[in-house]
Amino acid sequence: MNKTLLFIAIGFLGLSIGFVTNQLFNKRVIQPTKVETSTPEYAPSFNLKDLNDKPRNSKEWQGKVMMVNFWASWCPPCLREIPAFIKLQEIYARQGLVIIGIAIDNKQSIIDFADPMDINYPLLMAEKEGISLAKAYGNRLSVLPYTAIIDRSGKIIYTHRGELTFDTAEKIIKPLL
Description:
The protein is of the alpha/beta class. It has five helices and seven strands; from the N terminus they run αβββαβαβαββα. Strands 2-1-5-4-3-6-7 form a seven-stranded mixed beta sheet, covered by helices on one side. The relative contact order is 0.20. Mean pLDDT is 85; it is low at 11-16 and 18-37.
């Protein structure tokens, strides 16, 4: 009988340790680290046009914390994350954050979507060129949305495939500002 109680106690202890470890793991603070080994150390430069057909070069944002987001108007998760990005840009622009939306889309589709959203950060048109640019940023699976967060020195600190939440982005961005 004592051996049975001992085995039950050990089993219960093991389950308890597993539960506590799981709780601690799920509540961990996200540290800015690269997600994929194929992500380059530094952000590749690019030249793309904005919605006014003005050429924009990534070097114009040098020295800022950049959040480069690859998206498309036909991508539901892309559209769901944009309000969070608008809020992040509004809160942290004065501290040196710039969000850059690179649309894998045509100009008219971008305009039709962006106008009513009142997007407060640069939107650049990439169409098919954007797919290869996203791959150069580490998006080897060509997933949309795809976001790269770059520090002031141009180093890619964090990449994210899929929808990025306000809270996750903020935890990565704040220490970089």
